[in-house]
Amino acid sequence: MASARFRCLAGCAGEWPLTQAIYRCPTCNGLLDVVHDVTALRGTRPDAWKAVFDARYKRTVWPFGSGVWGKKEWVAPEVPDDAIVSLDEGGTNLFWAERFGRELGMGELWVKLCGNSHTGSFKDLGMTVLVSVVRWAMRDHGLKVRAIACASTGDTSASLAAYGASCGIPVIVLLPRGKVSTAQLVQPIANGAMVLALDTDFDGCMAVVQQLAAEGIVYLANSMNALRLEGQKTVAIEIVQQFDWQVPDWVILPSGNLGNASALHKGFQLLKDLGVTDRLPRLVVAQAERANPLVRAVRQGATTVTPMKAESTLATAIQIGAPVSAPRAMRALQAMNGLAVDATEDELADAAARADLTGMYCDPHTGVALAALIKLRAAGTIGEGERVVVVSTASGLKFTEFKIGYHERKLAGVQSRRANDPVILPPDFGKVVDAIQARFPG
Q: Could you tell me the pTM of the whole model?
């Protein structure tokens, strides 16, 4: 029978059930990992796994229509179906960015639109697993928690609040005051979470919530908790499934706390370990230049990431200077022959605007990933015939201020070369015709 347990990422002895409120190794204080009984999973042939997952995909049989729980045996196999808290997360479209790719001289550019999920971000994928396990532990294993809590730059808080509200578990979110978009802020408020706006940055909020968890006041929902990564790794599995079980050549994603880099590695690695695929793609972790501790470490040839003071960036969700999952991300880069690339404010904003002109509607973090792609393509690192997937982590609709600021030329350090001004006219037919003629002569 399939099973999963917490173990120390560094290899210290011991293992703990997923229902235990434990976030770090008691021996070395390092991060934990969720490990699966791969031997038991190998009892099912690769073709049989493909058939099972394809039969469930986006169907209506509870809970397997979820993009996460359709892979339940590979995620959290022991959680009872009636304890699962799902909002039909995952199953997001793999968008063929044909026109944008053609501009870059590429034959195959795809964008995995993870923002097309219940709360508008990929965070739903991990939150469904975490909240489901907490619900199961509270109901059947005696776990006592006052609330589930997280520090957040916006999307994590929105997702946790929605999943907590869905099953009636109280939620507390700690946000850096004035550093979260209006759309992101209103989501946890609307879902009834206790919202604490602290006069600090994300790293300051993270320090407080870790202390709350250490004192047993709350259950920690940040990606330090390895449960989150189990749901997020299904992005990798789903991408391969959408390509008829073929692995792309490159995957590029924006990352701040670096948990999603590790999650993608876990997903691709499990596919390979179980014989469903025979290789890993190359991974590119994209960061804003103003919050780029992983990029700095890679440039210096370091094996560990040194925390930095993150500066203000338009890519607010990845404005993180002390990423909790840095050791996991370094392991992912090594395993996947990966690269770390950063983008300036002007580069990320221009990349997002350029993509928008080809039919997308990109959040600033996707802009960071696209800027990294543009650089790697220009350098010839990514070849024209390679299949590339850019992971878009959130909906652009959450970042209206960013879009308006770009087109009104109000973003500091951004040239807004592609700003598109509305033409203000009186209701005069002749003037409208003149304006059209000026824009589209011929």
A: 0.95
